[in-house]
Amino acid sequence: MLRRHAKIIRLIEIAGEVSGRKKLQKMVYIGKHLNMDFDERYEFHMYGPYSEELTLRVDELCNMGFLDEQVESKGAIHMYRYTLNPSGRDFLRFQDVQFGRGEQVIRRMNEENSRFLELVSTILYFNHLPYEEMVRKIFTFKSKQRYTEEEIQKGQAFVEELKLLMQGEIDTAPLM
Questions:
Q1: pLDDT of residue 21
Q2: Is 167 exposed, middle or buried (0-12, 13-18, 19+ CB in 10 A)?
Q3: Which of 29, 78, 110, 151 has the most other CB atoms within 10 Å of its CB?
Q4: Could you give the CA distance from residue 26 to residue 19 in angstroms, rounded to a whole number?
Q5: For 170, which DSSP code?
Q6: How many whole angstroms from its chain centre is CA 113?
Q7: Which sequence spans correspond to the domains of the chain?
Q8: What is the pLDDT of residues 112-141, one digit of tens each?
Q9: Residue of 127, 88, 113, 107 whose CA lies nearest to 16
Q10: Which superkingdom heads the taxonomic lineage of this protein's source (predicted)?
């Protein structure tokens, strides 16, 4: 049971800090899609792929005192920031969680904002469809985000970049 928790703690340790619940959701989903060892099940939701299991796991980690969750309120909007604390570091010392080349992928994903990662995760969710149909689905389901076809192409290029990082074909990601 705690092994699944340790994977989330390790992701946050590698990232240093993850700003936003949505961003964390998308990072785990994308990582899972790239064959990183995550167990959470996902369904399509208002903001793209979403895992209730991940939400519960993060809440448990905060309640156990392994993660710090800072909440910033900007009017009606609450922004959550997750960092690893000393108790979480101690816990990780007893867990063998390695992501290998996935560590570079985690760092690279964390450089992007949640809106872009939402698009990338949605692209991956519909990647089994022909390109035109995938674009239609994004325009339909994500109409409020007003993604452009150029952004979708940038998202696809980002997926390819992450795949190359996972395969070790590039050492560091090029700036986009």
A1: 95
A2: exposed
A3: 29
A4: 12
A5: -
A6: 10
A7: 2-167
A8: 999 999 999 999 999 999 999 999 999 999
A9: 107
A10: Bacteria
